[in-house]
Please model this.
Amino acid sequence: MKRFILPVALFAVLLAFLGVGLQRNPRELPSPLIGKPVPQFSAQLLDNPADTVSPARMQGRVWILNVWASWCEGCRIEHKDLLDLSRAVDAPVIGLNYKDQRDDALRWLQNNGNPYRQIAFDHDGRIGIDFGVYGVPETFVIDRHGIIRMKHIGPLSAPEARERVARMVKELANG
Model:
């Protein structure tokens, strides 16, 4: 009888961990970048390879970085909400086109609308790696000092866009 106590106790502990894990939102993975400076980069603009975009150009402004790709199904799901968000907030939405083909991305934006002020072209995914991108879409809110304040993994649904991102942008802009 005593030999069953240890396996039963271990099983109970495993069940407790499973129960806690099932209560968590998989879209809220902690990011080690929250509260840290935005990774520095300089990338060609998607629509104008002769020009570049960088976080240094955003200094002094609250801004949103949205990582997306034309091949991404989640990006299709969030796109209408992202268009609405870009019109509703007083902050530029900057795109990071991740591991995509330039022509495919430009065609996708032409067909679906463009919520972005500027779009960095990250063909090889190196900038995404610096941001700790797990997959697309991902959205970051960056304060006027260049500090990442929020990361959202996966599509932004309309309620999330209004309640979480827009609230964070407003708080940072007023603070």
The beta strands are 43-44, 52-53, 63-68, 93-98, 118-122, 138-142, 148-153. Helices lie at 5-23, 73-88, 102-112, 126-130, 158-174.
